[in-house]
What we know:
By secondary structure, this protein is α/β, with parallel strands linked by helices. Helix content is 40%, strand content 19%. The protein has 11 helices and 14 strands. Residues 67-68, 70-71, 144-145, 201, 228, 255, 287-288, 309 line the site of alpha-L-arabinofuranose (AHR).
Amino acid sequence: MNKRTTRLFRICIMMLLLAAVLTGCGSGILFAPGTGESGIGEDPGAAEAPAPDHHTITVGFSQLGAESDWRSANTQSMLEAFDTDGYTLLYQNGQQKQSNQITAIRTFIQQEVDYIVLAPATETGWDTVLEEARDAGIPVILVDRRVDVADRSLYTCWVGSDFELESIKATAWLDAYTAKKGVSTDEVRIVNIQGTIGSTAQIGRTRGLANAVRANDWELLAQMSGDFTQTKGREVMAAFLQRFDDAIRVVYCENDNEAIGAIEAIESAGLTAGPDLDRGDLLVISFDGTSREALQLAREGRIACIAECNPLHGPRVRALIEMLERGETPEKFNYVEERIFSALPEVREITVDGVRYEVEKP
Length: 362
Ligand code: AHR
């Protein structure tokens, strides 16, 4: 048979099957191939007809938004990891609103998905909707940030970063760098452009900084949220520069997009972002290491140090689902390993809690 004849033959068979199903005579036919009852197994054309895939796993993914390069990379990683046979991914962008994410979860429940993957914007306010998912028997996997719920069994597991550890590494680098440069602790006057208030990333990075300020006798001049975006990072930095004039020495940005915005504000005020504190540079510290622009700024020393936050969680979430499918119980909290980057030669390694981290070139 040539290709065209084969196709026509297949179409005929498909139509016959469809007619059988519609008239009710076909019950069981599609689910009993090769048993001899349906005759499907004896027909070469029908044998090649697409069989329904009983193993497709439907995953509803509620992403919190698209505020940063990190977030775009994270979304891409999820879409790619599930763009494969055996999975259907339903993706919803929450546009930074928890109410949108709650609506998305309720829609996934109605759609009877097999798993819900939630990247929550902020930590609180999830109890009710997660109870609804549990009542529907749908496992929830958290990715990136966490939720603060009374009952931790409302989610199956979590995968993401240790945001406070990232901050401990960044501030250990700052401590080592200022010591090497002979900058006295009371000269370390910091402004903090925070992430989205109430998000796990903000909570961990702000807490890490607060502890380091206390431990090292640094001065924290001010804190304000830049919502993890470049635009707000620029606005907040412009406001800090107006308020503190030339008192600021260190700008601690809770992600790279804020750092890019802050550098724009610094440079348009006629100042420089760089490593030479004694020449009046403002030392910028950041998190992520995802965007090309931020990595380039780090190569130039305009961002002094970046604590990595790894966004490539798609394959990790898939591996967790595969464990659950095999009936295994994954760890409740799954941390990813992360690095620290700086182009400045003064500090080549830091040690945190007995663990040594090489400071890598960006
Ligand atoms: O939750 C991870 C943080 O969220 C990333 O550091 C930041 O860039 C993102 O928006």
